[in-house]
Amino acid sequence: MKMIDRLQHAWSAFRSVNYKTLPFTGGSIYPGHKMRVGSYSRSKFAGALFNRIALDVAMTEFQHVKVDEKTDDHEPMPKSGLTRMFSVEANIDQTSRAFMQDLVHSMFDEGVVAAVPVDIDINTSPGVPGAYEIESIRVGRITQWYPEHVRVMVYNDTIGREQEIYARKADVAIIENPLYSVINGPNSTLTRLLTKMNLVDNLDEMMSSGRLDLLIQLPFAIKTESKQKAAEERIKSIEKHLTMGKNGIAYIDGTEKVVQLNRPANSQVNDNLQLLKEEFYNQMGMTQKDMDGTATESEMRLYYTRSIDPIVKAITEEFSRKFLSKTARTQGHTIVAYRSPFNLVPLQQIAELGDTLVRNRILTPNELRSLIGFRPHSDPSADKLFNPNMPIEKQPGVEKSGSVTPPEELEKNDPQAIQNGDNTNEEGTT
To answer: Which pTM does this prediction carry?
Structure first.
């Protein structure tokens, strides 16, 4: 397509009548069915947690495919605008993975977030009825809700700053946090946890500064103003020595006595904090081990099932609903997410499982290699359902000459032959 033709078909959210110029008044600063609370990115604990989950979601492979209703085969759509958005870049500033990480992190922080196509080529994507080419898509913060529209704060790269626009709900993907009640809801577990953590931090600060630790018995009575002044000067002197000393050691006069005060243990506060943290992790479907990298395979699988998969599902469903036409969805077009089932499996187990799958003629060697992320092998036999542990003459479908009988012919002669590994005729010869 020539540049002039492309410009004639271009569409921008910042110039469209469907977005910016709608004369709305009133509305609500929150979605009608939810109520957002403040930003959690300022919390070190929450920020690290959100970043961990956002990274794991971003590592998921999103694809635009066409599903065959008879065979359930997934045919990739390499020329669609959605494929480019998922595999190359989302906008001039972000790769596909950076955009997805931004989307998930913002979703946790805000409770609900919008994916806004800001630059579009209205020519339909090749092979996708009713679809359009998304040239640029941004993460937007919803500031106002209306029956059919939302007001969104989104970055405009032509002016280099955020800009508030109106958008139809049908034109933007609105992703709501599946764990809303745990993180973003009023009196959520995370809110209570952070409040408790702030309390502990404040107690620690009070204990480290401004709290009475020592009593010094001076060799004189403090009954006059001059003696009071002398006592204060003596305390300042000891504090100075403690501050300047490398090992926290200071001397006292031989006539002075020091009494060390025992600080009250805040065990109850710490115990409550630990219980609340465990409750939060349980509701999130994860453990501390998932965060520090010490989780077992089964613990990681539970984490992905309960924490990552619901977020991935929310994204794929909303993207399919908003960025694929009804006609396209009817014809089998959809957005899917792939994650290798072998990422969490030790190499030894992968080898044992692979041997079982190939030996029982469930997968060809090349099909197995593709599953675990290897390139196909050039050996022609790598595309055949052979048992590598059997001599070639005993393989199902192999004649004495060494040629292979096509599977369909083998099934005609004996439907059980493939399953039983038997290709004998009435005379009992192979």
So the answer is: 0.66
